[in-house]
Amino acid sequence: MNLSKRLKALLERESEKVKRYEKVSFWCEDESRFGCHTIARNKITLFGVKPIGNFQDNFQCFWLYGAVEPRQSRSFFYEFSHLDGDCFGDYSYFK
Known about the structure:
The protein has a three-stranded antiparallel β-sheet, covered by helices on one side. The model has no long low-confidence stretch (mean pLDDT 78). By secondary structure, it is an alpha+beta fold. It has helices at 3-13, 15-19, 85-94, and strands spanning 28-35, 61-69, 74-80. The longest helix is centred in the first third of the chain and has 11 residues, at 3-13. It has a domain at 26-33 and 60-95. It is elongated and about 75 Å long.
């Protein structure tokens, strides 16, 4: 059974509860990390000689949380410096 049929059956089954609300909206949510990082490459040296070179072990990035409601063309995006429960709580509160 496809999604639209399942939603229609659910709304019909719960029609008394649905009537209490003016409208029902379905939101799709996702979060993504954006940033630049160093690409690890091999260095050729003699056996037993450690390679000498610069290495960047940290990088700058940010997290983008977003929610979209396609039926009414509504969207909401929020940018955070890291990903944890507190950030997601703030995001879901403002949504």
